[in-house]
Amino acid sequence: MPGANSVTSNQETLHKDLEEVVRKYARTTFLRPIADHTREAFAQAEEFIRKFYEARNADPATGCGETSAIGRGAPETAPVAVILDSGCGTGESTIHIARRFPGIPVIGIDKSCARLNKAGNPSQTAGEDVPANAFWIRAELLDFWRLALDYVKAGKWTIPYHAVYYPNPWPKQSEATRRFHMHPIFPTLLALGETIELRTNWEIYAREFAEAARIVYDERAVAGMTIKCESFDPEKPETAFERKYKEARQKLWRAFIKT
Ligand SMILES: C[S@@+](CC[C@H](N)C(=O)[O-])C[C@H]1O[C@@H](n2cnc3c(N)ncnc32)[C@H](O)[C@@H]1O
């Protein structure tokens, strides 16, 4: 992990090309072939989710209560609730989120094997068991998100909360199109979750993310979204990076997108 230095950038405000790039990608579909290893990881996540609901016999549409959606007259194919923790790193946040939403499976996703190997170790759980609804997979987010969106569109999954905590900020202006919100994947990311929470130690990243969401919705003539961007001070850090930033007294930012 890099030290807890503040982000340094040759960019002092929102990227000058933000609007143009985001609008362009809002009109296109990201078509890069999906890697086999992420298809396999997706299948593992899907199996975990299925078994979780079978074991819990919970209401798969809300993740809570004992009443079956089918019993209430809902279609047999009612979507199951799934929470994503994208770029979970060492997986600490996955445990916090899983405790916050005990009735819903929480999938922590990261491409780093070294970081994922630390997921669920006793220092993260404070001696308690790993929550039964937490699961980690190694996968490429740009591929996982597209597979997940197929499930959302097919009415198989609903994603009430999607954590995107401290993604790599790519602060150099010349690398801006590697930021999730200036990448062709962004409309997919937006379409996935009912609530997306982005956390970052770079104010410009949070403001760009929120503005990019506004631009996509405007381009697609979608109304009624709530888009918020604010600084915050977490009482208890929920990720390894958050702890480092807090200890270094850096100001933290978050953007909320609610559909
Ligand atoms: C700055 S770290 C933050 C990790 C964790 N969220 C935290 O706050 O401690 C960003 C993480 O995103 C992961 N990541 C970045 N791009 C990714 C991608 N395209 N697919 C999967 N993981 C990715 C990296 O491996 C890394 O663990």
Structure write-up:
- The chain is an alpha/beta fold.
- It has a single domain, classed as Vaccinia Virus protein VP39 (Rossmann fold, 3-Layer(aba) Sandwich), CATH 3.40.50.
- It has 9 helices and 9 strands.
- The strands form 2 sheets. Strands 4-3-2-6-7-9-8 form a 7-stranded mixed β-sheet. The chain has a two-stranded parallel ribbon with strand order 1-5.
- α3 links the parallel β2 and β3.
- α6 crosses α7.
- The longest helix has 21 residues.
- It is globular and about 50 Å long.
- The two termini are 33 Å apart.
- The structure holds S-adenosylmethionine (SAM).
Calculate the terminal CA-CA distance, rounded to whole Å.
Answer: 33 Å
Shape: globular
The secondary structure category is: alpha/beta
- Radius of gyration from the CA trace? 18 Å
Per CATH, the superfamily is Vaccinia Virus protein VP39
Report the sheet with the most strands, covering strand number, pairing sense and barrel closure.
Answer: 7 strands, mixed
Gist?
The chain is an alpha/beta fold. Helix content is 36%, strand content 16%. The strands form two sheets. The protein has a seven-stranded mixed beta sheet with strand order 4-3-2-6-7-9-8. It has a two-stranded parallel sheet with strand order 1-5.
